[in-house]
Write a structure and sequence with these properties.
- The structure holds 2 protein chains of 2 kinds.
- By secondary structure, chain A is of the alpha/beta class.
- Chain A has 18 helices and 14 strands.
- Helix content of chain A is about 60%, strand content about 15%.
- In chain A, helix 1 packs antiparallel against helix 4 and helix 1 runs antiparallel to helix 6.
- Chain B is about 25% helix and about 30% strand.
- Chain B contains 5 helices and 11 strands, in the order H-E-E-H-E-E-H-E-E-H-E-E-E-E-H-E.
- By secondary structure, chain B is of the alpha+beta class.
- The chains are: A alpha/beta, B alpha+beta.
- At the A-B interface, helix 1 and helix 2 of A face loops of B.
Amino acid sequence: MLALTSFKRSLLAICLCLALLISMVAHRASLREVEHQVVFSISVTMWKVSELVFEAQRFTTALADRLSGQAGLADVQTRFDVLWSRIDVVEALEFQETPLIADPLNDMIAWRARWDVELFGDTPLTDAQVIAMRQSLAPLIVALRSGWVAEFDTAHFGTWAQATSTTQAGIARQEWMIAGLLALIIAYLAAEVYFASVATRRERALRDAADRANRSKSDFIANVSHEIRTPLNGIINMAAHLSDHPLSREQRDCLAVIEDAGDLLLSTINDVLDLSKIEAGQFVIETSVFDPMRGLRLARDLYRDAARDKGLILDLELPQGPLPKLEGDERRVRQVVHNLVSNAVKFTKTGRVAIRAWYDTDTQPGFHIHISDTGPGIPAEAQARVFEPFAQEVDRLQRGTSGKGLGLPITRALCDAMRGTVALDSMAGQGSRFMIFLPLNRVEVTLSDRRARTASDTGAPHLGLRVLITDDNATNRFVLRKLLDKHGVEIHEAASGREALELLAETRVDVVLMDIQMPGLDGMEATVRLIEAEALAARTPPPVIGVTANVLPEQVAQYKDIGMVAVLAKPVAKPLLLNTISAVTSTATATRGDVAPQTQRAAG
Amino acid sequence: MSQSRRLFLQVLALGLLLPAVMSAASPLPTPTGQVLLHVTGNIAITNSEQGAAFDRAMLQDLDWVEVETYTAFTEGPQRFAGPTLASVLAAVGAQGDILRATAINDYSVQIPVVHASAHDVLLAMDMNGRQMRVRDKGPIWVVYPMTQLEAEAHPFDGQMIWQLTQIRID
């Protein structure tokens, strides 16, 4: 059965069903035929018995006629013979099983044998003999008739029907055939179900294997990115630190190359990591209130030089009046804008790239960003595929350009995650327009927002705080110290979790920067113990900021579960570090926990 | 029925038919013995006021044949002898399509006249060499010669009337 194609199998099943149908029709016809035969047979039997009773009565009448002289001996003999033949007919029906009929019938046979001798004898029949003949027959008639009535009531009808049916063998053959066909069909169905389940199991096994392979690929990518990020942390931050020192022009140029290369490498790693998260369905959208204007201006400023170098105009078109503050993931919104602007600048040779943004309150409420260019455009047949990771069109479009090739797939995944859309309007040779719609809520500006913005915009705030840097790696401690040392921060250092706890038992600090992966007591365990110890001493523990390269969403969630107020990914950018420290310390005295950005799982 | 038997019967019938046909042209004699069969209705030749009456001797003078055959009412092969229905119909100059046959007990059936020649129908009077009494389905039993297989299908059971005494031609 397995060797047959499913088409042939279904054809076979249809043939079986047809055969079954035909057999059932034939069987029905046979049953009706049998029914007719039974009815006929019963009526014949009934008729034969009633004929016998009738002939017996007629013979009685003939005897009476003989006594009155109206009938001759020959007439009586004829009627006797007719009666004789009727007895034979009923005897042939084989009533042995039914004594109520068989007994009077046997009596009649004995009766006719006795009177046969006298009726056809040499001596003429006397009147006394005639009377005796009649009197001896009368009870037999009564007995036969009552036996017949008793036997042939409805209670015995079925028995009669059974006894008289003659084509039971044919019916049985047809029933066997129907049963056989049914068995075949059931066997077929069972086989179908079995093979379907085998196929499902095989498919599931393949899918599981593919999932496992994908997971291990994602793990591998995450590990590799961790391995790359840690040294990159050192390179980028040291370059940044070095640029604060007096340098010769040549040294500054070299440093600029190092910084550019480092930034590019970091953003590539971030893209790869994003894509692996998308593929693993581990994408997390963080919600906070932000000013979309800043991101848009930043994108324009970032790519303005590159555009000018190519002779392109880069415009930012904004509606009159300020854009409202939005509630959403600012980092992801910026990432989307950067991806599209960077692509547009990259692929456009002459003309213009325009960023248009507005907040729509009517037809499609939400934040709209359109990025249009006068580049080569994308042919209609390729448009659907430019959003697919590793699509050939992407390769072809970006051949000869220094692109990563993941920008558009990531853009679409980000828009999906924010429940928005990204659409493309383009024709080959006519330029392209990418249209982003994000259903973000508007937020009324509050004082605290204003203050937060002011704080982060000042650039070099004087924090005046005590900070404990906990990291087993001396380079990392050095980098963090360098990032903070111009901001009025009193630095304490610990090379392990245990060391940190010992230090904290004696010294009060305002914030703890905690590495996670450390030999001995790791960052998570140290944080847990710190919070317990402070609770025992009835003190408020200092806010703990995780500083780690292990920033997969579930890991971040885990860190926050045990009590860290924020998590920073290595390599840490200076503004983010300062902002985070100032944010957690300014609210630590008020309500703990509010500062950490709310996280939500992205759909899908 | 085997081919040779059928041929034999046909030759026999032909041999006996000649005197029957000759006698049919002549008026019927008056029966001298017990009348066994009355033929009435649409007939040309009569020997009484009611129609034609036959005693055994008159019937024996017709196309008398002997066949071995099977019936649904008997077990195994049976030898029947008697005049063919066709010869009886010829003897009375029957003109009609249907004949009504009636038995002693007033049971009656209709038989198409064409059956007489088409099925070699016999008015059997002797069974297995013995004259049939009334008690043995005599004096006349309408017999359709058949093979065992044909008899099992009961094709002419309705027409095979016994204790026949009257035929009316319609």
